[in-house]
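Hi R.,

Here's the chain you asked about this morning:
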Amino acid sequence: MKDTKILLVDDIDYTRQLLRNNIMALASEGLLAHSNFNFFNANSTVSAMNMFSLQSPQIIFLDIELPDGSGLDLLSKIKAVRPNCFIVMVSANSTLENVQQSIKKGAASFIVKPFNGDKILAAMKLYEKTLHTASAHCSD
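And here is the predicted structure, written out as C-alpha cells:
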C-alpha cells in the first residue's frame, strides 16, 4: 500500500512535531486503517504552497495564523486547485467566525490548540471514512 502523504503547516516546529507524533502513535496502536505515512512540513503560506505543489499530500493540517498570511486564504487557494483535498484547520484562536469560515471554505475538520490525540484521531477517522465514500485525495 502506498504511504499516505501528510502536510503539516504551522509556524511553530513543536506543533508540527506534536501532530506527527500523535498520528504515529495512533497508527502504532492500530487505531488507524493506514500506518505508513510520509510527513512534509511547512512554516508559512509560501512554503506550504510549494510543498503542496511538489508532494500532492492526501491530508493537510493547516494552521490559521501564519507569519506571511492567513491559513484561511491558503485553504481557499488549495481548494480552488484540488476541491476534494482533505484539510484539517488547526488554531488556538477558535472563534465562531474562524470555525465557520474554515468549514465554509471547505475544511473537513477543525482542531483547537492545544489539541489531544482524541481530536486528531477523530480527524483521521473522518479522512478514512471519506476514502470509502469518495476519492478524497489532494492528488485527484
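One quick note: The two ends are 18 Å apart (CA to CA).

Cheers,
M.
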